[in-house]
Amino acid sequence: MSTLVGSFYSTYQVQKEQLTKFTLRSNLAYAQKLASATDNFLESALQQLAYSANVIEHQTDDLQLLNSEVTRLNLQTKSFNSVVANVNGILAATSPHFATIIGQPINTPGAIEATNKKRPLISKPYMSAAGNLIVFISHPLFDLEGNYLGYIGGSLYLKEKNILNALLEQHYHEGGSYLYVVSSNKYILYHPDAHRIGSLVTDNAVVDAALSGKKGASQVLNSKNKTMLAGYAPVASSGWGIVAQRPLKLTLSSLDVLTIEVVKQTIPMALITFILIGLFAHFIARPLKRLADNADTLDDPQSLEKLKAVKSWYFESHRLKMAMLKGVNILQMQIGQLRHDAQTDPLTNTHNRRSLNGLLNQLMFKQTPFAILEIDIDFFKRVNDTFGHDKGDEALVYLTDIIKKLSRKDDIVARIGGEEFVLVLPNEEDSKSAYTIAERLRTTVESSKIDTIGYITISIGIATWPDHSNDIDQVYKCADKALYYAKNHGRNRCVIAGSL
Prior knowledge:
The protein is built from 14 helices and 18 strands. It has helices at residues 2-56, 63-77, 109-117, 163-169, 205-211, 248-280, 285-295, 303-309, 315-343, 353-365, 380-387, 389-406, 431-446, 472-488; strands at 82-87, 90-95, 121-122, 126-127, 133-142, 148-157, 178-182, 188-190, 216-221, 227-235, 240-247, 370-377, 412-415, 420-426, 449-450, 454-455, 458-465, 494-496. Strands 1, 2, 3, 4, 5 and 6 form a 6-stranded antiparallel sheet that branches. A 5-stranded antiparallel sheet has the order 8-7-11-10-9. The radius of gyration is 30 Å and the shape is globular.
């Protein structure tokens, strides 16, 4: 009995550790992805303001041009809740139009900071005169001689709908998972609970690390004193920090339920077995002794074969043997299910990143060369936005089926992110040959129509081990770089690392 309990406990602890590590890595990747998306949004907003500044800065006395440009910027880009042009310290134009403040000086913290620093700027959050919690993004105006004239800027109302909130909300996870964004002075800029926006975060090591420019993952207590598995990353352009976290209790809940079911189904059979052994040990010595010996190693993968080898020559020992076989089958099936769930992507039934890393380690240990095809669906966000996440999931499953159909017997298919897949080609050390396979996959996807969604395309980055590097992390980075090149140069293409 102690051996059985010990096996349950050790199995549970191993699975608990693996699930915790996997969730921490997932949340780190998730936080990094959102930090990159937020950084891209802020850079885009600054570029939009820079373009408008170039349009108006040499004609600041043309009020019609100023009004036209702030209106265009506000309506066409949808990056700001409001846009203002401040020339020579006086508010010259606004969108939406506020007639009562035109011609007046602006003394808000964001305006003062923009005037003092005279450079492209993302302000710290502050409360406007109208009672709105604001982040102000601005770009300076200079005349032909380089004299400072003022600025053009856009406001994000943090407690109202804006494009930044929309960007972050589309990545919100249900079931207790959530993310939040903190400014450089530790005020919450975004949170699924709108009442938390604008509040100050204190005594939070994860937030402190993200705001110091670090990225990582760790367990942390949230404001409700619950243990969370948090991943965090900085937003480089603004000094903000993004935290993605999931409750530890929720992460382990499925493991707890499955372990309880294993115990419920296994313990009765084990108890019956041990009682029978105790009652009849002095009558039927040899068969029961061998069964008892095997009962101490029920968690041994070879236990089934050992039990089958016991010669139960009388009825009672035979029945006992069958009961033990059934108990071992149940135990190993449940443990196998736990391992399968921990190593498999639930949507596509392919390998997940942890399982993929284990298989790649085996290939490298055997010195088997291989090619990595990193696959990403082009404009997948449009699919989710247009048809909904259910149809997005159908597209992922459809792409998985195509990859599997075109894969060879020993090829490895894994899903490592939202719309990111990896196809590993063992014994494929020739990048050109891997490119041919990738092109066949790309053209097949391109010509395959998905119900409701229509056609999708994919971009593929290709790298080989050990040709590109002996370090698997570097091989990943090579494939990533090739994939990003493909995405940034037209998409729907395959690129070999090193051929850029």
